Amino acid sequence: NSSLVIAEHKDEQLVPITLNAITAAKKIGGDVTCLVAGKTVAPVVSELCKAEGIGKVLIAEDSVLEGTLPERVTSLVLACQKQFNFTHIFAGADAFGKSLIPRIGAKLDVSPISDILDIKSPDTFVRAIYAGNAITTIRAKDPVKVISVRGTCFEACPLVSTEAPTENAPQADLSWELTKWISQELSKSERPELTSAKTVVSGGRGLKSGDNFKLLYDLADKMGAAVGASRAAVDAGFVPNDLQVGQTGKIVAPELYIAVGISGAIQHLAGMKDSKTIVAINKDQEAPIFQVADLGLVADLFKAIPEMTEKIDQYLSK
Amino acid sequence: MAMRVLVGCKRVIDYAVKIRVKPDKTGVVTEGVKHSLNPFDEIAVEEAVRLKEKKLASEVIAVSCGPPPCQETLRTALAMGVDRGIHVEIGGKDYETLQPIHVSKILAKLAQEEKVDLIILGKQAIDDDANQTAQMTAAVLDWPQGVFASKIEKMDGTLKIQREVDGGVEYVEAKLPAVISSDLRLNEPRYATLPNIMKAKKKQIAKKSISDLGVDITPRVEVLTVEDPPVREAGAKVESVEELLTKLKDLGRI
């Protein structure tokens, strides 16, 4: 067996889910090769080379790879596949990997396996269906397995001091002109990134307005937490869509998840129920969120959250 | 020039139904369970119909692959304003093992037969949650893909697409013909009115078989088990903010 992991990066930094995907690839056994494609990749490569146990890093640096269009990256991956004949190709199951992995699968004429939770053997994988209301174990029959990985289900591969060697990726036709990457508008935030934060404070429709999210931001800032939201809060226009936690938004599994004014619709639970400790704060004691919460507080959030923000200093570990 | 648009319509268990896993672990119970048009496909249909209303599309064709009840799913799309339907009939064991790789080849074939300029599909189906068909259809046809679209704008032979990505939005331009997939915020689908539901009954649904299309639907994966997810037990209620913070500290979470 041998695996290729397609690295993801943003603002010239490695996106952490890549390290979770490497751990998944290592479970297959055999060599793990990583591919970094982009316009400016040197800082990403130097970080990635330190990932424990990887064999080598392939580099494709080209201005036409700005925005890493899946159409162009697919050509590159096909060229790598032609040269190295990997048995498995991995990427993280986020917007980047989900755009790219099926395109590669179709070009190789193999059925991709989306968003895996576990690996039972090199051809047997576990994934969630029906928004996590059922778990299926499948055996893939295709000779090459093309897979996206749920980041929260695999530990991040540690970074060590030894460095894996690098080489240039094989030549590929990157002349695709039918799609043009224009720009990205990423929300700027000083807070930790939602999918990798240790603590997440999420708000729902109970917050009643976007302005009221300030209550959560104040608490989150004291706790060093990321802020998330339910689909109801996003649909109501309280916060931008990139904060959405749920089946169709981001999947998170922090050490502590605090759900504030969130009723707990199935599709929201699908995005956070693997959190280690779940706290629910809701004034409706019948809210389904209490059925999954380790600690539930039936209270008016407009009183409870400011009180938490005020008192938390004396509880926080130094 | 106005576009010819193809939309995908998957029949899935209704989003409001609490699904049950079969005791023999081979799948979920589908008999006697309410089914509907996949919500993301409903958004795709709405977007196609809006293009037609803006005279940017000349014809909108809906496709559904599966057993006979898929015709009801197509009627939903026709009642929303789609012009005609194509039902690719696949039943029994063949349907159980049908995967996005097969559906993407079927859609690609139909897109060529119907000479369409744009394919709009839902970003994922709420049953298998695969999120693959649009990307794969684009790859089979060698067309541009604009997946997870939250806004599209047509300019001559190009679509400007706003895509939902991690941490914000991204803009790409795709030359037609192209494939896009709809994210939640692309639009809010309409409810079909009674007169339109009546009118939809008269619209044409063509029936096709897999052999008509010449697509190989040999199974690519074998389902070993389908099980209930691990149950998360509800914990304790606390009475006050202080009690909550004390417990969190004891657990080492803060």
From TrEMBL, chain B:
A Pfam family that the UniProt record links to this protein: ETF
Keywords on record: Electron transport, Mitochondrion, Transport
Stretches that traverse the bilayer: none
Gene3D superfamilies for this protein: HUPs
Cellular compartments annotated: Mitochondrion matrix
Primary localization class, coarse: mitochondrion
Keyword Ribosomal protein: no
Coiled coil feature spans: none
Domain Electron transfer flavoprotein alpha/beta-subunit N-terminal as annotated: residue spans: 25-217
Function: Heterodimeric electron transfer flavoprotein that accepts electrons from several mitochondrial dehydrogenases, including acyl-CoA dehydrogenases, glutaryl-CoA and sarcosine dehydrogenase. It transfers the electrons to the main mitochondrial respiratory chain via ETF-ubiquinone oxidoreductase. Required for normal mitochondrial fatty acid oxidation and normal amino acid metabolism. ETFB binds an AMP molecule that probably has a purely structural role.
Complex and partners: Heterodimer composed of ETFA and ETFB. Identified in a complex that contains ETFA, ETFB and ETFRF1. Interacts with ACADM.
Sequence similarity: Belongs to the ETF beta-subunit/FixA family.
Protein name in the entry: Electron transfer flavoprotein subunit beta
